Structure formats: C-alpha cells, structure tokens
Amino acid sequence: MSAVVDAARVRETEVEEKARRRGFTAEDKLRVLAEADRCTQPGEVGALVCQALGLPRATYYRRARPKHGPVRRSRSPRALAPEPRAEVLATLHEPRFQDVAPAEVYAQLLDEGRYLCSERTMYRVLAESHEVRERRNQLRHPNHPVPQLHASKPNELWSWDILKEPCARAQLVALALRDAQSLDGPGNHRGAVLWEVDGRRHLP
C-alpha cells in the first residue's frame, strides 16, 4: 500500500481530544474584579469583560439587549382622524342602526349618497369602544360551589364504604358504616358503627 493510504487510515482511527472549556482561577477572578472597580468611564466594564472572556464586543452587547421588545406599529397615513371617527361612531349609534350590522349600515349609507368609511373601519371603531362581541349564543358554565357536609356532634353525619374482594367461586363484600364526627384521621376504624361481610356466589 502507498504511504498516502496508510496515513489516511491512521487519521481515521485517531481520536481527537475534545476542546476544554476555559477555566478561571481565583486569582484571575480577583484580578478582573479589581480592574472593574477601577473603571470609571462608560463602556470600560464591558470592554474588560470581553477581553477576559475572549468575546467580541458586538456579541456581548447584542446578548445584553432584550430579545423581544414592544412592537410599535406605525400609524397608517389613511387612518381616520379623531373627528371622522367620532362621526362614524355617532352614526352607528343612531336609533335606526341600533340593531343593524355594519355591512347593512354601510350599504344603506351608500344608498343615501354618504360615504363615511369602509365596512372594516366601522368594525375597528366599534371594537375600540368595546361594542363588538360574539353574537352567537355561548354556553356559559356557572361556577358551582363544591358541596360540603359538616357535623357538630356524633350521629349527625354518617359515611359508608364498600370493599369487593373476589374469592374462589364467590365474591366477598365488606360494608362499613362510619360516623364522620368520630373519625380522627385516615385509616381510623374507631368511628365504624356497623360492619357487615357478605359472601356471594357466582351464578353458573
């Protein structure tokens, strides 16, 4: 075999060492903190951090800025001024348009020779005044309180528990009747006022 093939095989079998993360000793950290305390001009601390970490300044300041800021939408030059918006809202508040959809209002105003705005703008004006909602019937789920039972003395509130245990050709049923006022905690059987065990055979 040629020397080139042998060298290629050697490179394939070699295990490259993984890059290790740069570490800082306690002396390095104290030195950087001391230099940061001596910084007085704006931007000196950022330059010191970038120099110590080997990080470009652009990357440092880009990560320091918030990723998601408030979205500012520019106002459309064709948007209605406050006075025309008030006129549109007053027109929609007229008694004849109280139970009419904006599409019908738009068409009726065109029949009268009036054009205030588009149909979509009417919806925007109504939405800004919180006058647009879902017109379909919505199912409302009331908040029903959880029923609670309270007992102030014995023999006022009883609870029962049934345990079914399958056996050979039969089923063991255990019934316990307890007084809620006499129970001290879970697993306490002192409040049981009645026990009954019944063995029921399976029908052939």
SSE topology sketch:
Layout: H1 3-13, H2 26-37, H3 44-53, H4 57-64, H5 82-92, H6 102-111, H7 119-128, E1 158-167, E2 170-179, E3 192-201
Antiparallel strand pairs: 1-2, 2-3
Helix pairs in contact: 6-7
Can you describe this structure?
- The chain is of the alpha+beta class and 204 residues long.
- Helix content is 35%, strand content 15%.
- It is built from seven helices and three strands.
- The protein has a three-stranded antiparallel β-sheet, with no helix packed on it.
- 2% of the residues are buried.
Multimeric state:
single chain
Tell me how many strands there are: 3
Give the strand order of the largest sheet, numbering strands 1, 2, ... along the chain.
1-2-3
Low-confidence stretches: none
How much helix is in the residues?
25-40%
Radius of gyration computed on alpha carbons: 40 Å
Count of DSSP-assigned helices:
7
Q: What's the SSE pattern? A: HHHHHHHEEE
> Largest sheet at a glance?
3 strands, antiparallel
Assess the beta-strand content as a share of residues: 5-15%
First-residue to last-residue Cα separation: 85 Å
Mean of pLDDT: 77
The outline comes out as flat
What structural class do you assign from the helix and strand content?
alpha+beta
